[in-house]
Write a structure and sequence with these properties.
Quinone Oxidoreductase, Chain A, domain 1, seven-stranded mixed beta sheet, single chain, Rossmann fold, alpha/beta, 9 helices
Length: 332
């Protein structure tokens, strides 16, 4: 039996994505074979394809940072999951495929009642927003925060979770996307035509409680400057290269050491490899919020999994509000 996946054949744009066919093997010991139901198209997928990432994958590779699926077969020694179980995983690579083989310890249990298309954004985008809000910055109701990059997959997760937490929110986005920020009660700022530092200092002269930065660069110092004493800057942007990673971390560490009563932190999902417990707890919380209708991912478009190139083109257009999700054909 064969299955199809989408591979990156060389560094470049969406045109380098090609569909290939492979043999569907039996899972190895400690491994589960997952029939993929949904995979979000994320910025890290794009950056990996161009080679703009600190640890570049060897070509050819299958992109797909996160995935949701159904256990199709299990290898020897797999005891926590059975055939038919709904699962998800933070895969980093491999999600643009009809099937994926994963170690048991990487699997996240998912309630079967939830829509896979809505679960998919929770695995990366919402976990980033939730953990930076509640574990890194430890926000509380009434806090005033800035979201740098407020209209994409992670940005709209911040908007929903921030509203749920009772935050006063400011968000940077282009003018055409301001309506989604207003929908969740955030004050939009057009980063193209407005000086966001000036706008927010005027609106909040005593400073902000937290700044969440998904862009980096000169936004680090500018965002940090808006914090009140006791405030927290949290950066989660992809530094794009190893040298930039060290530079970014150096900036954050330096800002955090300055004797000004403000903190600076860097967030990355890589810590899930060393301590999965907080991630499993927070994913379970997000699943419950979704089940209760308290959050609902903004999904701009859905594509068949094998149409990943078209989905990537749309993401790179810069016109997307929220998330793009790849789905198994029977879910479209």
């Amino acid at each position: 039996m064969k299955y199809k996946s989408v591979i990156v054949t060389k560094r470049g744009g969406p045109e380098v994505l090609q569909v290939i066919e492979s043999d569907l093997r039996v899972p190895s010991a400690g491994e589960a074979r997952i029939k993929i139901l949904a995979t979000p198209v994320c910025l890290p997928d794009v950056e990996a394809r161009y080679g703009r990432t600190p640890f570049q994958p060897k070509i050819p590779f299958v992109p797909g940072y996160a995935t949701v699926g159904c256990v199709d077969a299990i290898g020897e020694g797999v005891t926590k999951f059975a055939v038919g179980d709904r699962v998800a995983a933070l895969t980093v690579y491999g999600g643009y495929a009809e099937y994926i083989f994963l170690r048991e310890k990487l699997l996240i249990p998912v309630p079967t009642a939830l829509d896979p298309a809505e679960v998919a954004p929770l695995i990366l985008n919402y976990i980033v927003a939730y953990q930076t809000l509640h574990r890194s910055a430890k926000v509380k109701a009434g806090d005033k925060v800035l979201i740098i990059g407020a209209s994409g997959g992670i940005g709209t997760a911040y908007l929903q979770l921030g509203k749920l937490a009772g935050l006063t929110m400011y968000g940077l986005a282009s003018k055409g996307k301001h309506h989604v920020l207003s929908e969740y009660g955030a004050t939009p700022v057009d980063y193209r035509t407005q000086d966001f530092v000036e706008v927010i200092r005027k609106a909040e002269p005593e400073g902000l409680d937290a700044v969440f930065d998904g862009i980096g660069g000169d936004y680090i110092k500018r965002g940090f400057s808006l914090l009140r004493r006791g405030g927290t800057y949290v950066g989660y942007a992809n530094p794009l290269s190893l040298s930039r990673t060290f530079r970014f971390l150096g900036q954050v560490i330096l800002l955090g050491l300055l004797p000004n009563g403000r903190a600076a932190k860097y967030y990355g999902t890589g810590s899930s490899l060393f301590n999965q417990r907080p991630f499993l707890e927070d994913w379970a919380t997000l699943f419950k919020l979704l089940e209760e209708g308290k959050i609902k991912p903004v999904i701009a478009n859905k594509f068949p999994i094998l149409d990943a190139a078209q989905a990537n083109s749309l993401l790179e257009s810069g016109q997307v509000i929220g998330n793009i999700v790849l789905l198994a054909p029977d879910l479209l």
